[in-house]
Amino acid sequence: MPRMLLWLVSVSALTAQSAVEPSALRARVLSLIKASGAEVAVAFRTIDGRQELLIDPDTTFHAASTMKLPVMIELFRQAEAGMLSLDDPLPIRNVFHSIVDGSEYPLDVGDDSDAEVYKAIGGTLTLRQLAEAMITVSSNFAANLLIERLGVENIRRTVTKIGADGMQVLRGVEDAKAFEKGMNNTTTARGLLVLLEKLANGPVVSTKADADMIAMLSRQTFNDAIPAGVPAGTRIAHKTGTITKIHHDAAIVFAPRPYVLVVLVRGLQEEKESAALIAAISREVWGAVR
Q1: By the 8 A CB rule, do 231 and 11 touch?
Q2: Which of 5, 29, 241, 286 is deepest in the core (most CB within 10 A)?
Q3: If we measure between CA atoms, which residue out of 241, 43, 44, 60 comes closest to residue 167?
Q4: 20-59+188-290 sits in which CATH class?
C-alpha cells in the first residue's frame, strides 16, 4: 500500500503541471529507458491524433501474449460473419500440432498462467469462455484451442486487413520445434498501436463486437504495468505479454482525452523491474496528455 500511495502522489504532482511538450515527454521517457538498461519500444498516440510519441516503433520483438489480441479479433470476425457462434462448445483436448512437421505436443499447466481450462479436459467450453480466459487471465491453453479452431492463416489475413503489419502470428504457444527454428510470433510497437487504434475508433468487426472486445480487454487481471501509471479507477482496455526477459503492455487508456499506449520491453530478468519501468513510462504519458 505505501507504494500505491507514493504512486498516487506522483500522479497528482504530474497532473498539476502544465501540459508536457512532445520533446519534453520524449526526453523523460528516453531517460527512463536509459536508466533501465533495457531495450524498449514505445508507441503512443491520442485517439484524436493531436499528440504522439514513437520510440523505435518498428523494432521487432517476440510478441509473447500480445498475439492473443488478433486471435480475439478473428474470433469475433468469424462470429459476425456467421461462420461460428461464440456460444458454440469446443472439445477441450490437450493436443496441438507443431507448424514445423505437424507432430503433436501438449501444454503443461505448470507453464501456463491459469489452470481452469485444464480442468475441462475431456469436456467442452464455449468459444466465448475460451476467449475470456485467453484475454483476462492470458490462458495459453485457451489461445491454442482457439488458434486451431480459427486457423492461423485467417488470423494473419485479418491482421493484414487491419493494417497492423508489424504483427506476425505464426503459431500457437509452446511449439518447441518452431521455437528452436526461430519461428516465433512477433510484433512491433507500431503494429500494436495500429491494431488498438482501429479497435478504439471502430468498427474493426462491428460496433457491438468492438464494444464487447473492449469490455473483455478491460477485464484483464494483470494490471501492474500501464494501469499502475494512471489514476485509480481509470478504465483501461489492454493486453499484456510476458516470457523470459520480455514484458509488454498494449492499452487503450480512457483518459479525458483517450489514447493508445504500447510499451515493449526486452532484456530485464525480473518482471517486477520491467513492470515498474512500463508503469513509469505510463505515468509520464498520462501527465503529458492534455
Answers
A1: yes
A2: 241
A3: 60
A4: alpha beta
How do residues 171-212 score in pLDDT, each as one tens digit?
Answer: 999 999 999 999 999 999 999 999 999 999 989 999 999 999
Q: List every span in the chain annotated with CATH 3.40.710.10.
A: 20-59+188-290, 66-185
Strand partners, 239: 250
- Kindly report the number of other CB atoms within 10 A of residue 120's CB atom: 17
CATH number of 66-185: 3.40.710.10
- C-alpha–C-alpha distance, residues 175 and 168, integer Å: 15
d(Cα 166, Cα 15) in Å, to the nearest integer? 33
What amino acid occupies position 178?
Answer: A
Q: Structure pTM?
A: 0.91
DSSP the chain: -HHHHHHHHHHHHHHTSPPPPHHHHHHHHHHHHHHHTSEEEEEEEETTSS-EEEESTT--EE-GGGGHHHHHHHHHHHHHTTS--TT-EEE----EE-TTT--EE---GGGSS--TGGGGTTSEEEHHHHHHHHHHS--HHHHHHHHHHH-HHHHHHHHHHHT-TT-B----TT-HHHHHTT---EE-HHHHHHHHHHHHHS-SS-HHHHHHHHHHHHT-S--SSGGGGS-TT--EEEEEEEETTEEEEEEEE-SSS-EEEEEEEES-S-HHHHHHHHHHHHHHHHHH--
What pairs with residue 97 in β-bridges?
104
pLDDT, tens digit, for every residue of 67-92?
A: 999 999 999 999 999 999 999 999 99
